[in-house]
Design brief:
The complex is a heterodimer of chains A (about 50) and B (about 240). Chain A has about 50 residues and is mainly alpha-helical. Chain A has one domain. Chain A contains 1 helix and no strands. The longest helix of chain A has about 40 residues. The termini of chain A are far apart. Chain B has about 240 residues and is mostly helical. Chain B has a single domain, classed as Four Helix Bundle (Hemerythrin (Met), subunit A) (Up-down Bundle). In chain B, about 75% of the residues lie in helices and about 0% in strands. Chain B has 6 helices and no strands. In chain B, about 40% of the residues are buried. The chains are: A mainly alpha (about 50), B mainly alpha (about 240). The interface between A and B is medium-sized, with 33 and 36 residues.
Chain lengths: ~50, ~240
């Protein structure tokens, strides 16, 4: 199933690994900051309504 | 219905909230099969061997790196002319995605170049303009972070974006107007059916799917990050009111 990359295994795997690491980091950071801002805004709106 | 109606943050939040899950789902359903197809199910190239598999990552990310900058140019221009905040925030939200795409294109290009050209890097017009574009991305992100006043940050970063767009254009067309350097010319004309140098369908079909997948991923991240920026703007306003 896994393709035989021969003598080019290192560059091919390095290209895919760097892409996966950088994209995963980007996605996780985006999701984390989205959740943080959503929660903070909800809390502030709640406080505003209670006043 | 006019496109300018989406410049209203409330309307943008409502609409983007509705389409975001669909675009995210579509991005997953496109990108993962495209990469699996490219990596596991395509043959080696007769000259480049297994390194041809890097094309399914390198070309889509390079394509997006240039086009995200173009999108930032358009949205920055809209901000400068029409003062729509969603437009400025969309440019701000796109910049880190563009920087990551540029970095992936640079890294994958280097690891592809080493076995094919015998070097990781050359000061070739396309590679150099790409590196300068990456520096502009970083500068743009840093400028937004350095200025507290939101409108002033949007103005200055929009101007920086305009200046950097020259390098985005050079990155796109360098191979056409400079017949020097190691980087090959654009692959697009090679894909016209019937030409002698046509890229085999076995390579370009997963490549097209991969470009579509990366584009959908960008769209999903852009909507998510623009929504975050709009919420952050509201948080700042509410805190200022409380203080």
């Amino acid at each position: 199933m896994f393709p035989d990359l021969g003598k080019y295994a290192v560059p091919v795997l390095a290209a895919y690994a760097s892409m996966i690491v950088l994209l995963a980091g980007m996605i996780l950071l985006s999701l984390r900051s989205a959740k943080k801002s959503k929660d903070t805004l909800a809390r502030l709106e709640q406080n505003r309504k209670q006043k | 219905m006019s496109i300018w109606e989406f410049a209203n943050p409330v309307r943008f939040m409502r609409l983007s909230g509705r389409v975001l899950p669909w675009i995210t789902g579509l991005a997953i359903l496109t990108l993962i099969p495209a990469l699996v197809w490219g990596f596991f199910l395509t043959p080696d190239d007769y000259r480049q061997g297994a390194t041809v598999k890097i094309i399914y990552v390198h070309v889509p990310t390079a394509f997006l790196a240039i086009n995200i900058y173009f999108m930032m140019f358009v949205t920055s221009l809209i901000w400068l002319i029409r003062r729509h905040h969603v437009s400025a925030l969309a440019a701000k939200a796109a910049a880190p995605i563009g920087a990551v795409m540029t970095l992936i294109a640079l890294i994958t290009g280097a690891v592809w170049g080493q076995p094919m050209w015998g070097t990781w890097w050359v000061w070739d017009p396309r590679l150099t303009s790409f590196l300068i574009m990456f520096i502009f991305y970083i500068g743009y992100i840093a400028l937004w972070a350095a200025i507290d006043e939101a409108d002033k940050a949007a103005d200055l970063s929009a101007i920086l974006c305009m200046i950097g767009s020259v390098f985005a254009i050079i990155s796109r067309y360098a191979v056409n107007f400079w017949s020097q350097g190691l980087h090959q010319g654009t692959s697009a004309p090679l894909m016209k059916p019937g030409t002698e140098t046509q890229v085999s369908a076995v390579f370009w079909q997963p490549l097209m799917l991969s470009i579509a997948g990366f584009f959908l991923l960008f769209l999903a991240l852009l909507l998510l990050r623009t929504r975050t920026e709009i919420r952050n703007r509201r948080i700042t306003a509410l805190r200022a009111r409380e203080a």
